[in-house]
Amino acid sequence: MVSALLIVGLTLFLMGTVMLGMDAQHRGRSSLMFALPFAGSGYIRHFWSDVWLAALLRVSGATLVVISAAVAVARDPLVLEQPRRLFGVSAPAELVGSKRAEINTFANSQEAVLLAIRSDANPMLSGRLRGQPFLYSHAKLVGGVLSAQQGEGFIPDIEVRILLNLDPSTVTQERQTFYVRPADESAPELQITWRAEDGGTPHTEIIRGGYQMELQLSRRDAHTLTGFMQVILPDPDRSYLSGELAVRTNNLRFIRDRVDLTYDHPDTLEYVGRQYLETQFPEKTVSSIQFSDTRLLMSESGGVSVATVTLVNGRIEQRVLKFDRADIGWAVRPGKMETRVLAEGGNQQLRLVVPGATTQRGQVAAEVPPPVTLEFASLDTLTGQQGVIHQADGRTREGILRGLRRNRLFIESNVAGGTAEFSFAEQELKYIVLASGQQVLLAGVKLLQDSLPEAQSTGQEETVAEEPQEPEAPPETAAETAPEYTAMVGREVTITSRDTRTRTGILTAVTERQLTLSVRVGAGSLEYFYSPADIVSLTEVTR
Which of 156, 217, 441, 455 is 20 to 30 Å from 483 at the Cα level? Predict the structure, then answer.
């Protein structure tokens, strides 16, 4: 691309120069005035109406030449010493290799066996390559290629690559062993790359057979394998490697065992995105997170990825993540993300079962933590947790807490197959029940003992003020707020009221005073409120 740009620039520059020279000759002027840059500027200004095209060609060509040269030097500084590299012609690479072991018998010798036995207990993969000591810095298995390198630079001091054609996802916690013998006809290709002492062009040695290898691998976690490797090479330098190693299965770059968030690679974006998404759901509710279409947008100092999140209750969500590139590294762009529900779970919301109650399908049983009392400003510590907001007017809203902004608590909730963000002022809140079942009481808000869930009423005498109980609702109202209404929260239902109107939507809340139905309208949704006494029928929609 750079060479093509350079050729186009030179062509335009020469065309403009020739046209200006011919015009000067026709007017009896010397064409040599255009041999030097800016030498013919006076002539061009005087006859601009006649030579403007030639002048523009000359300037455009010169600009393209300068740009292409700058890009070429930035991409490959050695182009200043070897101009032929600009057109893809470089110094011939040094390739040394053999398909047979007959050139050297070290791989089969007793010396190699004894040397390998003495090195089996190495805690880190080490040995000797090309006559120099070798101690690996890190190893990875990506694209079926196992590589171990010494040195942390972009171009390592020395690197060993083995073309195993092995998918790391097939490696389990049970250790698997791979063998290569010197007499094998179809051994995996082995490559050794090193930098010359003068820091010049890297050299590569290719070995397609005749070596001996034993490789043992087992899975440590989702992105790391551990194992043992022993390699004895058939070269005059008696090269060998032996010892334990940890193998990464992605392209993340580490600095002192910590992920380098400044490294520009799609795997870095997916790592940051995974860390972010795991904080957006209650603990132990995420089954898996898969990423696709992860791209770096370097012109915008950003990136984008699509994450598919599967929850333990079977719900599947697809979220579009956007990333920003800052000095400290990559981070998820703050703000509301685009979310699409691909599949509803067996139970639309993840609910925790009170100890002693019967666990239903799709529910997660857990021990309920004791209640806590927090100031309104301290609710920001609950960011990322799922819970139910109980409002002062009796309504409820379930979703994921998104923190405090402008003295309001924000919550992201599922509405009519999509997501919406709601905010609440301090005076609008009554209390919060987290997904773990833990109650979060607000300091300064007095609650009736009976206004809290029955399962949590014990042990709260110190935080709940005792007040006279409100009169019980009339019998007909209590009958209308039957338990089956509460059981249908989060499901699609059809409600027929006393005015003969019928609406279908998502039942989002049920209280003693009213039921809330969210009906999807166009790209948004409308909420309808029903008094239990006004409901003629309420049926679940089955598809």
Answer: 441
Tokens of 264: 């520009």
Kindly list the distances between the CA atom of residue 401 and the CA atoms of 323, 397, 416, in Å, as whole numbers in the listed order. 21, 11, 19
| pLDDT value at residue 425 | 86
Distance CA 257, CA 102 (A): 42
Tell me the residue length of the chain. Answer: 543
Give the HSE-up count for residue 78: Cα atoms under 13 Å, Cβ half-sphere: 12
- Mean pLDDT within 133-145: 88
Condensed to tens digits (0 to 9), the pLDDT of residues 358-409 reads 444 444 444 667 888 888 888 878 887 888 888 888 888 888 888 887 788 8
**CB–CB of 424/409 below 8 Å?**
yes
- At residue 175, the pLDDT reads 87
Per the CB < 8 A criterion, the answer to whether 225 and 217 are in contact is yes
Sign of CA dihedral 292, 296, 300, 301: positive
The tens digit of pLDDT for each residue in 177-214 reads 989 888 888 889 998 888 776 666 778 888 888 888 88
Q: Which fold has domain 368-452?
A: SH3 type barrels. (2.30.30)
Determine the 3-state secondary structure of 469 from DSSP.
coil
Give me the CATH topology for the region 484-540: SH3 type barrels. (2.30.30)
DSSP secondary structure letters along 100-124: SSTT--GGGSHHHHHHHHHHTT-SS
Q: Which CATH architecture has domain 259-343?
A: Roll (3.10)
Tell how strand 212-221 and strand 176-180 pair up.
antiparallel
pLDDT at site 461: 39
- What is the DSSP code string of 246-312? EEESS---EETTEE-TT--SHHHHHHHHHHHHTTSS-TT-EEEEEEEEEEEEGGGTEEEEEEEEEET
Q: What is the DSSP letter of 151?
A: S
What's the alpha-carbon Rg for the chain, to the nearest Å? 35
| Residue 503 DSSP code | E
Other CB atoms within 10 A of residue 13 CB: 19
| Distances from the Cα of 341 to the Cα of 237, 319, 420, angstroms | 60, 9, 13
